[in-house]
Amino acid sequence: xxxxxxxxxVVGGIGGIALLLHLSGRxxxxxMSREEARAAWLRxxxxxxxxxxxxxxxxxxxxxxxxxxxxxxxxxxxxxxARHLVDxxxxxxxxxxxxxxxxxxxxxxxxxxxxxxxxxxRELMRP
Amino acid sequence: xxDNLIYPDVVQWAVPFFIAAILIEFAWIALKNRxxxxxxxxxxxxxxxxxxxxxxxxLLGFIAWGFxxxxxxxxxxxxxxxxxxxxxxxxxxxxxxxxxxxFGHRIRWVWASHVNHHSSQHYNLTTxxxxxxxxxxTFMMIVRAPLILLGxxxxxxxxxxxxxxxxxxxxxxxxxxxxxxxxxxxxNTPSHHRAHHGRNARYLDCNYAGVxxxxxxxxGTFVAEQDHxxxxxxxxHNLGTFNPIRVAFHEWVGIWQDxxxxxxxxxxxxxxxxxxxxxxxxxSRATSEMIKADFVAQHPEETGTxxxxxxxxxxxxxxxYQFDAGxx
Lengths: 127, 328
Ligand SMILES: [Zn+2]
Ligand SMILES: [Zn+2]
Fold this sequence. Notes:
The complex is a heterodimer of chains A (127) and B (328).
Chain A: H1 3-23, H2 34-44, E1 50-55, E2 61-66, E3 69-76, E4 79-84, E5 88-93, E6 96-101, E7 108-112, H3 115-124
Antiparallel strand pairs in A: 1-2, 2-3, 3-4, 5-6, 6-7
Chain B: H1 10-13, H2 15-32, H3 40-74, H4 83-106, H5 108-114, H6 125-129, H7 145-149, H8 154-169, H9 181-186, H10 190-196, H11 214-219, H12 244-259, H13 266-274, H14 288-298
The structure holds zinc ion (2 copies).
């Protein structure tokens, strides 16, 4: 196949499908309840005992206290990703916190938090 | 010798069909409100990985091609290009695919390339196109050497491989439940391949087939999709990024970081590159055998059910992988 036609097909195809998905509401970020965050954590890390779960006011992220230490679970598109909170940095943002993991496969999470939440989460995230 | 044997590049010609089928699947899901899920960024990442795979084939394809033509000069055998030879080539190349795919899950060096096909938590037709950019660096073209030495022309072997890839496109869907019984018995199907994409303990390291599921039944890796154990798609440690560069290279970065850490023996460094995924020198990670053993320990009633037979398990007390246990 001529390269120009292949290029047009690929760029047009990806762009068109992206637009279709976005306009039909497929970009919405997952919202979790406390119970859902708990179940999602156990889906990712089945061996953990969960001691406590704190969901952010947006429902897009939750702090999980486990027997293995604190962990963060966050909305990743329509799904979730979970990481134990070891080897990370926190940055204050206007709308909350940025968690910078030293992990090539999950580099950075932006948390939308109220001012009160930010204080409390900083406390809870200490290992 | 037919050095000028030419076949169409079928994967490129299939691109319009891929796009049309994705639109049809999406419309079906939207209308029926079942049969799968789509998410914008997940789908874009999958499609970009697919485009990058084609691009890496155009850029790096000459390496495998040069190797194959070298073998073709070497071999005195030439099976010609009759229809039956092409059919035989397709079947044998599917056996080749089974083993490359099995190595892809059991040797971390090869997994580093294949992992990205499994890196989505979704399972739809875009997932089929989430293909590696780094296949050339796994050197798995070696597994094709016997075919060419037997007298199958390299162009025919690549043609068979392209058809194989196209066959596997349609099975990446939740919109199809089960195919007719005879078909499920012989062919790879959406049901069998859903199980292959599962991160559930039961489904780890099963159903490596490309086109014919019989290879898994022959070599003992077949696990049927279970009604009571819904497939949870993705990786044991799911990615927290949609960035295609990170998706393509994250496991290579992981290998580099593990191999170069201070204080390891040479054997341990080699194991980080070539032992099964999940190997660790200190038992801090879990291989699929350990994950299965943990699951059975928590769910004893599942012992001996598909994918959880005792030969699939590694005892919990035996955390340090066998690779370390030899004479040092
Ligand atoms: Zn696979
Ligand atoms: Zn697949």
